[in-house]
């Protein structure tokens, strides 16, 4: 609940962007760092992803599902409109995240397109349930009833950096903001990042240390990395690359995936699995019509799983 409210507050502030002068020399001095797509993301994050929200909003897919998504957050949306005086129908421009898979509460989020003053003013109204807001100069602390804490600050007039963990500190966040783009110091990350489709709506890079791969290690199938992109427009087109330890491992994984994908092929306009060297690549394309059918099927399956069992006769 509080995470949803926080996202909506941030989106609401983006809808009413005004030009304001930076309140501090720190915010004014980093336009180049904030503009970097990898700015402020920690070098040791296991999972890094980005979403071009502005591009997503122009797609036919967004037009199809915007109403359903809005209904899911209806009460929180109404509360923010009442407390903060603006309507978060338009969203932020882009979002990037760095996540530590063994401690998912330890996350860094960068949101671009926000108005700094409106965002902070809205947070001060205590619009997020069960959360206390505290200011430490340029850093806002959100102290939640659960004991968790988020800290956030603006790198410039429209770039918010949020760090969530059990005990983040204002000084730690300041160091993060002042650190520029440390992830660019990772040659292994950049080797994958530079292969990504720059025009994609979303992208993701997962390194082989991520805890989600732990169960695969015992079977000898642990990937060294996963990276991929998705384009969202009139439909959805995704390409995911899985790097294995050896070309033989990639070939075996592709053979297994090809056999399993035959049953699902009819649900997609395109579903290809190929291995090249130590990388297996999965390519998926769905028209809006195919996407509707797939979403409906998934919702039916989710509903069946959540329904209580029928009583015995």
Describe the protein:
The protein is built from twelve helices and twelve strands. With 313 residues, the protein is an alpha+beta fold. The protein folds into two domains: 2-19 and 37-183, no CATH class; 186-296, 2-Layer Sandwich (YehR-like fold). Helix 1 (2-15) crosses helix 6 and helix 1 (2-15) packs antiparallel against helix 7 (116-123).
Q: Give the low-pLDDT segments.
A: 16-31
User: What is the radius of gyration?
Assistant: 21 Å
- Please provide the ordered H/E string of secondary-structure elements: HHHEHHHEEHEEEEHHEHEEHEEH
Distance between the termini: 39 Å
Percentage of helical residues? 25-40%
Instruction: Estimate what percentage of residues fall within beta strands.
Output: 25-35%
- Order the strands across the largest sheet as they lie in space: 4-5-6-7-3-2-1-8-9-10-12-11
The number of domains is 2
Largest sheet: 12 strands, antiparallel
- Described by the principal axes of the CA atoms, the overall outline is globular
Please count the helical segments. Answer: 12
Label the structural class.
alpha+beta
DSSP, total strands: 12
Question: Can you describe this structure in just a few lines?
Answer:
This protein has helices at residues 2-15, 25-28, 31-35, 53-57, 60-72, 74-84, 116-123, 170-178, 187-193, 214-217, 247-261, 288-306; strands at 47-51, 94-99, 107-112, 131-136, 139-144, 149-156, 159-165, 202-207, 225-232, 235-243, 270-276, 279-287. It is an alpha+beta fold and 313 residues long. It has 2 domains: 2-19 and 37-183, no CATH class; 186-296, YehR-like fold (2-Layer Sandwich), CATH 3.30.1830.
